[in-house]
Fold each of these.
Amino acid sequence: MKTSTQPKLVTFKYVFLSLLLTLPILLLVLRLQPQNLRWTAAAPGNIRPPTVPNITTRGIRIRPGYTSYEVYIQRQVNKTLNPRLRQVWITRDWDRKIQVFSQFFQHLKRRSLLSNDSKSLCIGARVGQEVEALRRVGVSDSVGIDLVPYPPLVVKGDFHNQPFGNDTFDFEFSNVFDHALLPDKFVAEIERTLKPRGICVLHVAVCEADG
Ligand SMILES: *[C@@H]1O[C@H](CO)[C@@H](O)[C@H](O)[C@H]1NC(C)=O
Ligand SMILES: *[C@@H]1O[C@H](CO)[C@@H](O)[C@H](O)[C@H]1NC(C)=O
Ligand SMILES: *[C@@H]1O[C@H](CO)[C@@H](O)[C@H](O)[C@H]1NC(C)=O
Ligand SMILES: *[C@@H]1O[C@H](CO)[C@@H](O)[C@H](O)[C@H]1NC(C)=O
């Protein structure tokens, strides 16, 4: 029995080895695909590509099917203003989400990634549960941005074009990176507004159904 499985194993080894050897080349080819080049080359400030292809960044699928930046923004605004969802966010979800966020931020504080003195921004904060959580755990200088403001926790702002100057924040948090139309721009804006040695935490759902 053992001898009959032996050749299979050897074959498998070779297949595996050749796969291993071709992987770097494969990755290189994938990186050089015109679609990827196009997004890498997108200049900061230029946030209006004529048509928007589906984008995949290291396995994370980014917002498929939008024909223009305006349609995308309108769609996001519509979603944020949905009265039924909004009601849920500020009632049923409110305490539970704040508790979860608070625990998460406490954890970051214990790891010295966040402190009471950190000037903090929550990106795509909707009704600002994460901002409220930050304030409750003692990070008092915290604010959120979203397309629709929710004062006093959330001010109006597009994460592709943050309404803040360079080097403003010590800490930035977002769980909507996978909602970005232009992920490069999303990250570039965080890099721009984060102070040197500032901390950015992105919470990303991988392999989740489209939402
Ligand atoms: C983008 O994805 C959607 C659904 O996932 C699909 O219907 C559409 O054909 C795709 N568009 C491109 C340009 O690949
Ligand atoms: C947004 O909602 C308005 C009115 O509720 C509707 O007319 C419009 O088509 C919607 N736009 C998108 C992109 O969903
Ligand atoms: C941070 O703020 C919290 C809540 O106000 C407080 O309990 C804690 O002592 C503060 N920590 C420091 C190091 O000042
Ligand atoms: C802000 O940062 C961007 C990107 O790093 C840079 O291009 C721009 O010149 C900076 N603006 C100011 C006012 O320093």
Note: The pocket of 2-acetamido-2-deoxy-beta-D-glucopyranose (ligand 3) is lined by residues 116, 138 (CB under 6 Å).
Amino acid sequence: MEEQSIRVEERQDKKEKPKSEDLIFGRNFTDHMFVMDYTEGLGWHNPSIIPYQNLSISPASMIFHYGQSVFEGLKAFRTENGDVQLFRPEKNVQRLNQSNDRLVIPPIDENLALEAIKQLVAMDSDWVPSTEGTSLYIRPFIISTEPYLGVAPSHYYKFIIIMSPVGSYYKEGINPVKIAVENQYVRAVKGGTGEAKTGGNYASSLKAQELCEKEGYSQVLWLDGVEKKYIEEVGSMNVFFKINGEVVTPALNGSILPGITRDSVIQLLKHWDIPLVERRVSIKELYEAHQNGTLEEAFGSGTAAVISPIGELYWEGHHLVINEGKTGDISKKVYDTITGIQYGKMEDPFDWTVKVEKNSKVRQ
Ligand SMILES: *Cc1c(COP(=O)(O)O)cnc(C)c1O
């Protein structure tokens, strides 16, 4: 496909930026956004960076009725010498197309999408905060915009990228959370859309999340949707356990979202020669490992928190305290290494970071 060039319309009245200490996840948006349209017959066209603004679309747009949409989430980081860099952005673009395939949304040109992310970040690079632990969250997404109430794939779409400066996830230091095993509701089932990053998966997770918060837990541990025996994810993160010296993570099975942080954790553990297996893990196995003292660590992984240690698991009347409720050594080492690479404080042996330069000149 021939590379399309991105039209740029710069905003004149720049917005006021929030102070680093006032940043709340996903509340403030930068000066510009990226938009590209899809029309059947014409394909994806008119890639543009424009001032951040409201959309005007028909209330009959299919996105409002049947939820045909996909999204991504990644971050830009400010390094100590003032550069701005992305973390494995090509993986997000690839995954966007995998999600597109599942939702019957026409594929995007991955090079163009990557270029759009880089140019948008370069244009609003003043919005990448520099205080410890802060970053610029990037949200690419696609919505179906055809005004039609019939149930069918849309013939019109919009691909949009918006960005939001975010504060440090761990203001008081990395802190283990309490998790409740979810026995009633499921997040996804094999054959469903669990593997795709699509809003519907989140809508269906809200009920369980609300109930667990009322009981004093921060997230739920999702079990598989068929037998409700095998562990899938924790909240909207992938999950890892250290059992008797070996790290175990649920194998990708069609209903688990293939996290980029998950993949990074796996690569790091292999690099360090720490035993790691991807396989099925049942909640019963975890319970038994806890009883015989071999459940040594548990943590979630995802772009927002990077690593979220699990200090306690609640399951059928049992409170399983893990590693005395403290952050484990592997959780800490993985967290320090991934964030070290993201902020340019540590070497990047895997070439995970991509530098963004002002004036949209990009060097790898
Ligand atoms: C996005 C997401 C993750 C984490 O993916 P990362 O690429 O690591 O951010 C895990 N589970 C679900 C359900 C997700 O939507």
Note: Residues 360-364 have pLDDT under 50 and may be disordered.
